[in-house]
Amino acid sequence: MSYPNLIDKLHSRLTENEREALLNLEQTAREQRLPLYLVGGSVRDLLLDRPLLDLDFTVEGEAPAVARQVAAALGARCVVHATFGTATLKGTGFAFDIAMARAETYPHPGALPRVRPAAIRDDLYRRDFTVNAVALALTGKKRGEIIDPFQGVADLKAGLVRVLHDRSFVDDATRILRAARYESRLGFSIEEGTLGWLRRDTPYLDTISGTRLRHELTRILQEDAPERALLRLQSLKVLRAVHPALTFDQWLARAFAAARDQAGRELTPLLHLAVLAAPLSEDDSASLAARLSLTRPQRQAVEAGPRLPALTADLAAPDLPPSRVAELLAPFPAPALWAFALTDTSPAALQVLQYLRDWRYVKSSLDGNALRRLGVPEGPELGELLKRLRAARIDGQIRSRDQEIALVQAALAGMEVVKR
């Protein structure tokens, strides 16, 4: 199947640095008489006219050797993963993954694959879905052709997410999460047979390590509207297979949508994770953190959530000064606070939201060095005075540096009286 203008289309969508690197890669492959292909999601997105998120290349030959030669020519960095015959090429303004065309076998469900050199068809057969099992030949006799042995282009046109064989989810159950992610992102449907195998093989998620599950879940949480994939996973009973307490409903979906409106630059996968974990108890939060091998920031965000409802009564106290709200909330990570503000229906949620938007950013114009120059001695008094200055700023009792200095001088005078 020939697409003679697709290579030109690829080059036109690259930055200048990416284009230079790709031209060098193509030239190196030609010199070594190695077929070079653009593969997987890169071809899918090129055919769909979607943004190219990643650039993945495969050569029928020694990919690390090709990558090293290109890196030397461009002054780029080359990281080789010898076990899988792959290399990552990074330079100014570009990053490519270059892999040896390979076949895979899985020693047992959930295991990392064993690989061996192979032709491009075998390489495509190891991929997760037909729409990703396509390649664009960049060099060699087939240059400009789409290599599509499993009808991936037809599935793209039909809007279907289809696995390549009936043991796909057994070999790698993370593909279950990926199926929902692609279905949601592309606006496709999971093909009927694939859906049946997915339901059958969901228990194989138990064979997947926490780190790999976390990676796939994080990729879902990076999507523009992750709630769509999460609702799908909930309907397929996949989330509870990841962890028995994990669930997702329209209430949390609305919280995800609200986060896009309110969280601004803090809208991150970590914030989404905290919202997802918001309904969990302390025990379930700790258990989920262990199952997914969460990183330290992720664990802190997830495990902090269940402790916040205990502050509801304190935060709702009449005439509570903003400085006291800030004092109560300062120990909590921001993603957990956002999750509480977006999912709690009590008046305390409004206090948390104002803290996140305003009060947490308030600072005194005087730091420790300034206080020492004003005569404040080293010791606990200095720290307490810094707290007083910030609290007075938050509560609006002082609004200028001169007023801060006056507060410090009054405090020093009080210290002198005590000494006498």
How do the strands line up in the largest sheet? 3-4-5-2-1-8-9
> Under the CATH scheme, which class of the domain at 1-158?
Alpha Beta
Number of helices: 23
Q: Which CATH architecture of the domain at 1-158 would you pick?
A: 2-Layer Sandwich
Low-confidence stretches: none
> What is the approximate shape?
elongated
Rg estimate, integer Å? 28 Å
Going by CATH, the homologous superfamily of the domain at 1-158 would be Beta Polymerase, domain 2
CATH topology of the domain at 1-158: Beta Polymerase, domain 2
Count of DSSP strands: 11
End-to-end span in angstroms? 95 Å
**How large a portion of the residues is in β-strands, by DSSP E?**
5-15%
| Content-based structural category | alpha+beta
What would you say this structure looks like, in words?
Among the domains are: 1-158, Beta Polymerase, domain 2 (2-Layer Sandwich), CATH 3.30.460; 368-419, no CATH class. α8 packs parallel to α10 (210-221), α14 (269-277) packs parallel to α16 and α19 (334-343) packs across α20 (348-357). Helix content is 53%, strand content 10%. The longest helix is centred in the C-terminal third of the chain and has 19 residues, at 401-419. It is α+β, with helices and mostly antiparallel strands and 420 residues long. The protein starts with 5 loop residues before the first helix and ends with a helix. The chain has a seven-stranded mixed β-sheet. The radius of gyration is 28 Å and the shape is elongated.
